[in-house]
Amino acid sequence: MLTHLTLINFALAEHLAIDIDKGFNVLTGETGAGKSLLLDALSACLGERTDTNYVRYGTEKADVTASFSYQEHSPEAAWLKEHELDDESGEIHLRRVIFATGRSKAWINGRPSSLSELKEIGRLLVQLYSQHSQQQLLEPPYPKHWLDRYSNFYAPAQEVRDAYSTWQKNIRQHQAALDAQATRKQRMETLELQLEELEEIVQTDYQEIEQEFDRLSHHEAIMQDCVYSLNSLDEGEQNISQELASILRRMESHAGRSEQLSQIHTSLLNAQSELEDATATLRQFMDRQSFDPERMEELNSTLEIFHRLARKYRTQPELLKEEYEAWQLELEQLQQLEDPETLAEQVEVSYQEFLHKAQHLDQIRRDAAKPLAKKLTEQVKQLALPEAHFEFKFEPLEHPSSEGLSFIQLLFTANKGIPAQPLARVASGGELSRIALVMQVMNAEKTEAEVLVFDEIDVGISGGTAEIVGRLLAGLGQHVQILCITHQAQVAAQSDHHLLVKKQQTDPASSTIINLEENNIIQELARMTGGMEISETTLQHARQLRQLKFQQA
């Protein structure tokens, strides 16, 4: 339930703190007073789009907070727990700050949140119905969606959509297999030939043989430099090893006289050890070296094969092995592809599964349609349409769709003896508004949301019809919290709580919202029925309207 709204520098509101009670709440006020203020603020907290017009003139940002209470095992409680936003307060605080630059920030229970999260929790908390909803009646999918929503057919309808998606996916896979069948065999043959050609050569490491070939090609120069190096290191008359030994003897005698000299002596000892290791390794290398012309010719032939195949397949010699492995993988994948016949069987199985679910959905829709149309007829008859009659018409689709097997129309007639026809063809604007209103109220009876907002849905009705609408909303308000923006005194008279929006000509102008006491409710109802000049007659009429609520109770 919505318990509190705080608006700071939001549109015409400088600073408003509004407590919202349970039951049927109405919001009234003169044209231009800012009745949409509360609704816009609530929508902002629910993650809807905002703009800079929401920021009060002359300020940098608007700040709105909506507070809700919730039950322990409700869907919103589960959502909060899932997102680790629950606490022990039993409250939900949704906050939105809108900056004059156009940016906005959002919080849920004090934690920064995304607009998508606000929308998710918002859909669980609040259901909005607007005066424009009658246009939805004219959209072809609406009757089916309304039937499913009222009858709680979401689960079987989703099963049909999923089954249809699987069937269509299998059709695409089967077609792809058919299209590929001609080229698949040819490609597999090509891959097998390429793999056969590379099978032997890729067993050899290209970089290793290239390195070996390079070493053999420079054998003479390598050996000359090795002989020179060994002579300089250890075998010449004045070699490095002897010189280093002499230096060590001289430094050893002074090593104890200075820490730095000691460190230098140690470093020289390490260098002598490294030098001896390098000299020994050099001798071993030279002992093992020999020039083999036959081996060189063999390496050259192998390298030529690498380069020839690399040119053929437009790659680098060192990448031939990677190409080989990629071809292997491609061949394996082609071999594993299911043949079209197997896929055709899957198409048929998935079609039968879809058909079974779609037929079930179609049947339960047909079973629910007649009593729902009867209930809609009974409800609409109260709104000055005594001869109203509704029925659902099911027309088989030429091609089944994700929505089922039938195109569903809602037929209507307002006149006795006249066959029912599609709404868009026969219903007037006034009739559509009343029908939309009743359908919304019936939907509201089925919603899990604890807050229902009706935004001027009573446009186009008056008198006794408006009174009945008020009673319908009042009855609904016994089970859920209702916020209703209205121009109709007959509707407002049925409220449990009456909020009045007033504009104050400050600089800049501002709006305030007042929770009216009973005497002030009568004054506001009189204004709504009689205009600015309130007489005793309009006051008496207002008292009578208000009395009807308590008589009904």
From TrEMBL:
Coiled coil segments of this chain: 181-208
Annotated SUPFAM superfamilies: P-loop containing nucleoside triphosphate hydrolases
Residue ranges occupied by any RecF/RecN/SMC N-terminal domain in the UniProt entry: 2-505
InterPro entries linked: DNA_recomb/repair_RecN, P-loop_NTPase, RecF/RecN/SMC_N
Alphabetized UniProt keyword annotations: ATP-binding, Coiled coil, DNA damage, DNA repair, Nucleotide-binding
Keyword Heme: no
Domain of life: Bacteria
Entry function: May be involved in recombinational repair of damaged DNA.
Family: Belongs to the RecN family.
This protein's name: DNA repair protein RecN
